[in-house]
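Support reply, case 0932

Customer input (verbatim):
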Amino acid sequence: MGGMSRKPYPSDLSDAEWLILEPLIPPAKRGGRIRRVNMREIVDAIYYVLRSGCAWRMLPHDFPPWQTVYGYFNTWRRESVWETMNDALRESVRQEAGREIEPSAAIIDSQSVETTEVKGERGYDSNKKVKGRKRHIMVDVLGLLLAVVHEASIQERAGAKLLLQRAVLKGFDRLALIWADGGYSGQPMSDWVWQLAGWVFEVIERTEETVGFVVLPRRWVVERTFAWLGRYRRLSKDYEQLPETSEAMIYAAMVRIMLRRLASNPYGSDV
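Our regenerated output:
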C-alpha cells in the first residue's frame, strides 16, 4: 500500500487506484514551501472522512494532522480541483465503455438533505418534509456526474435552472437532450432550456394507469447515482456551512466511485 507504515483502512485507495489519480494531483506551487507530506495519505484521509462521516478533528492520529488534510481539501475546493478530477475520470470511464467523451443526453434530479446546526442557508421541502438543502445533479446515461448545484431548499425549476446554467458554462458541445421527472414539467421550462442552450427538455412522467412502484425509463439512472452517493456517510446529512463544500464532497465521492471502476473493479462496493 504505497509503503505506508500504518494498517490500511477500508476507505484507502488501492495501488491501482492511486496510479490513476496521482497524475491529477496538483503539483506544489512554485516559490512555496517544499511539499513534505505524503499526498496519498492526504487523499486517503479525505476519503476516510467522506466514507466514515467523521468530523475533520476526529481523524485517526496515524493520518497526517487534520488541519493539513482539511487544508488540502479546502484548497482543492476553491480551485475546482475535485470538479476537474471528476471531469477527467468521467471521460476515461466513458471511453472504456465505448462511448464518446462528451455525452449527448443527460438526466437531472434533486435530493433533499437535512442540515445540522451549522451556520448557512437552508430551506424547507414541503413535499419531502425535510428542513435543509437540495442537491440538484445532472448525470450522463451511465450515471456519471456532469454538474451539481447545492442550494437552500428551492423549487425544482429554480434549482434546475441554476444547474443547467452551470452545465452551459462547462461547455458540453454534444449535449442535445435533457430528461427530467414530473416536478420539472411545463412548457415554460422547455422553452427556457431551448433558449438557454438549444437543448430538448423532455419530462418523463408516470401515466394515470401506473399503480405502485414502477421503474421509469431513464429516471432510474440518476436515482442510482444518488444511491452511490448515499454510501458516503458524510453526505447523509449536510454538515457544511458552505454549499460549495458540499458540492466538492459530491465531486470527491464520484471521483472515488470512478477510480474503483477504472481500476478494473466494476463490482466493488462503491459501484
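We compared this against your earlier run and they match. Two observations from our side: Residues 122-126, 210-215 have pLDDT under 50 and may be disordered. The chain has two domains: 15-78, 102-239. Please reopen the case if you see a mismatch on your end.
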